Amino acid sequence: MCILAEELQPYPSEYDIYVPKILANDVVRQKAVDCYLKKGPCTEQEKLATDLFRDALKTNCKKCGEKQKEHVKILTEWFVKNQPDTWKLIIENVDS
Description:
Oligomer: single chain
Radius of gyration: 14 Å
Number of domains: 1
Distance between the termini: 38 Å
CATH topology: Antennal chemosensory protein a6
Protein name: Putative chemosensory protein CSP8
Number of helices: 5
Strand content: under 5%
Number of strands: 0
CATH architecture: Orthogonal Bundle
Structural class: mainly alpha
Organism: Solenopsis invicta
Shape: globular
């Protein structure tokens, strides 16, 4: 019997970000949302971070390390509680 499994490459830890600081800063948070939604410019680092976040949402964080899972949970809970309309847009744009 042969079992083939896709080997998941974990997200690189150097792209871990300090989520509470971003959420606490209205300007930085909005810039990140605009980048994710492709409504504003993105630096290369922001583009990579939003791509990783999008993939994490799509795959239910299968490639996330423990810290990354914690970050996704913090982001999700914050947006659901504080900006549910923005969270809806984030979810609607997972595949874009």
